[in-house]
Design a protein that fits this description.
This protein has 210 residues and is α/β, with parallel strands linked by helices. The protein contains six helices and eight strands. The chain is 34% helix and 21% strand. Helix 1 crosses helix 5.
Length: 210
Amino acid sequence: MIEEENNAPQHSVKLIVGLGNPGGEYSKNRHNIGFMVIDELASRAAESFKRKSKSDLAQIEISGEKVFLQKPMTYMNSSGDAVKHLCRREKIKPAEVLVIYDDLDIKPGRIRIRFGGGSGGHNGIKSITARFGTPEYGRVKLGIGRPGSTAAVADYVLSDFSENEKELIEKVVSVSADAVLMLCEKGYGAAMNTYNGEINTECSEQPNQE
């Protein structure tokens, strides 16, 4: 049975946002896994990014529809400024936006797709919700786990994935791109039913394990 969310929109996704910080020194950080998935989607479509609207932007085609890929260049805590700017310019509604980001409360190797909800303390999500004036937009949350102490969180999210994690994270990025494409093509229910939970390291589609 396909998992559904009562408030999931029926219309299409027009903007996919990956959260992270600009600059090479942040590119492999845990906090930048959203950027990594956006890069994967652009690479599959052989599209390159252009710097405009406070962002690195590209467009890809999914099921015959043009969809923006956005990496805000405003730094994580001000992500909402770039997202709101682009949405205003392109007349995109919050419900037509899907945001990909790291989540401390989910174990590494797990994906959680949902529509709406709180920020979970994530500053990028706080910023987007504040600028939209609503939490009603799509989320793809990618687990990074928590460090040993609360005091270490800031350093942890701004540190690179360890060597031991790299193979798993590469798989997570690939599977997350698959999940995003399914969501755009078949809707939230199909994507949640297929991808929510721990990824299967041997195939990109797996049953819900949550």
